[in-house]
Amino acid sequence: MTSSTISRRTFSKLIGAGAAYVALREREVKASLRTLGSPDVASATNIVRLSSNENPYGPSAAALKAMTDGFSLAWRYPDEYAEMLADELARLNNVPVDQILLGDGSGEILKLAAAAFTNKDKKIVVANPTFEAIARHAAVSRADVVKIDLTANYSHDVQKMLAAANDPANGAGLVYICNPNNPTASITAKTELSEFLAKLSPATIVLVDEAYHHYVESKDYESVIPLVKQYPNLIVARTFSKIYGMAGLRCGYCVTQRANIERMRAHQTWDSVNIMALVAALASVKDAEHVERGRKMNSEVKKTVCAELDALGYHYIPSHANFMMIDLRRDVWPVIGALRTHGVEVGRVFPALPNFMRVTIGTSTEMKTFVESFRQVMV
Question: Which residues are paired to 327 by β-bridges?
Fold first, then answer.
């Protein structure tokens, strides 16, 4: 992301953009938490939580209404609503419905893939750093985990990953590519991914995790869902946790050919996605305006934060998601603790990048608090 000249006055003015919407949503959430009657839950709303890459704007109004209406369905098993969501997702992604597998968040999709395609004789190849969950699941299957460092510009080193996956002496059962990548918020170019898929052994499954797909604005990026038809060994995971603001509800899915779904489903619990998540997801995929509004607000707030960091002289990895990695030029752990004393919670430490701090892009008000606290802590 190129630096832009944005004054603190401009930064403050941005708080007014969409402020009524954001303030209303924050009041609704806090009011809901207070009704739970738990001091711990209520006090948690005083923390500026920028640690888990959540969507601070929450689900769409349509999703909230669908959940309210859905209380009357709580006594039913969710099968028919799962079928309805699968149908809707098939239309959205222009694929046959038998190429859709729903999951209890995309996290379940990752777990199913590790269970189905890795074992003590079939290793997994991942980037370093990347989202750790699938490697941990593969380790449970006694699979070797091969970590390939990111390139100098923080994209996946697809050439080295390809060499590791296609090793004739020790081939991979699964390759995991998170694009955009977590925790770096960087992308791997569409041309590089296309070349990788063309050269990868068809016996090796590749899972491309597109959890942050909706936030990307770069022309170098492209979803690989259209390539599922061409590559039987391709799985693409998506989630409702990010742009749709449903992290607490747990709903995700993947697009892949039927043979892969059958192998994954063998490891899946029946009815793993609850009916509240299903009705909210159904309403969400029909609300394109909510997606576009969320992308726009994330982009605008992120630009102002980048401008503040530029002014302070701190570098960051260009972000294509709803979070960013800031180079502190020092051990990140003490800074995480210091920000916590200011009521700001940021991401965990990532051993491969010990001087980088991951920060979720919150609302404009939240990020103003972050910038002010960051300035004080880093003096």
Answer: 356
